[in-house]
Amino acid sequence: MSALITPRWLGRIPYKEGLDLQESLVVGKIGGDSANHLLLLEHEPVYTMGRTRDESSLREETTLPHPVHRTNRGGQATYHGPGQLVGYPVLDLALFDRDLHSYLRFLEEVLITLLDRHNVCGRRVEGKTGVWVGGKKIASLGVGVRKWISMHGLAINICGDLAPFQHITPCGLPGVEMTSLEAEGAKDVTVESCAEEVSGIFNELIVSGLKF
């Protein structure tokens, strides 16, 4: 099994298209595909809800400005849309000794490294997943696992409109304020340029053998 990840930039696609592609890759890996994949993309505007009985983070679903898709990741409600980089690693979690804690910390480290390269200080918050800049949240994580193959993954706000987050309780965190790389002072950033950076960082950290 190769430790290197094969990245693919998909541009802006509907949520279901991204989900269907992940499902296809997961089935392939369970069937013996040795490649590890990283899908990088933007979504058309959508709210997603993880597998939980508590859907209070959606607030009033009937008043939301964009559709809701319930999906098989962990976590509460979030928003995906233009200006946000979404990453879906479909890989064998044997790379992380089948340790979900280590895998989540790895995904955070990828994003913290991206921020650092744009002179923005990202940090973890004890007891929570994701990445913060000061008291504001800039990136969210939500993963799914099937037979130790990962799907879903990460979302980081690069640029654009953050107003859709105001209609929900992002990640079920009351009072949380969202931010973006652009809002934190990064210049000339695009989702595609950041996708290219994340591809490199992902492989650099995999090869380094960094463990958490």
Describe what you observe in this structure.
This protein is an alpha+beta fold. The chain has a single domain, classed as 2-Layer Sandwich (BirA Bifunctional Protein, domain 2). The protein has three helices and nine strands. It has helices at about 15-30, 100-115, 190-210, and strands at about 5-15, 35-45, 45-50, 70, 80, 85-90, 130-135, 135-145, 150-155. The protein has a six-stranded mixed sheet with strand order 1-2-6-9-8-7. α2 crosses α3 (about 190-210). It is globular and about 45 Å long. The model has no long low-confidence stretch (mean pLDDT about 90).
Question: According to CATH, what is the topology?
Answer: BirA Bifunctional Protein, domain 2
In CATH, the homologous superfamily goes by the name Bira Bifunctional Protein, Domain 2
Structural class: alpha+beta
CATH class category name: Alpha Beta
List low-confidence stretches. none
CATH architecture group name: 2-Layer Sandwich
Structural Rg: 16 Å
The neighbouring-strand order within the major sheet is: 1-2-6-9-8-7
Helical percentage: 10-25%
Largest sheet: 6 strands, mixed
The termini sit apart by 22 Å
Shape category: globular
Summed up:
The protein is α+β, with helices and mostly antiparallel strands. Helices cover 25% and strands 27% of the residues. It has helices spanning 15-30, 100-117, 191-208, and strands at 5-13, 36-43, 46-49, 68-70, 78-80, 84-90, 131-133, 136-146, 149-157.
Keywords:
212 residues; BirA Bifunctional Protein, domain 2; six-stranded mixed sheet; three-stranded mixed sheet; 3 helices; globular
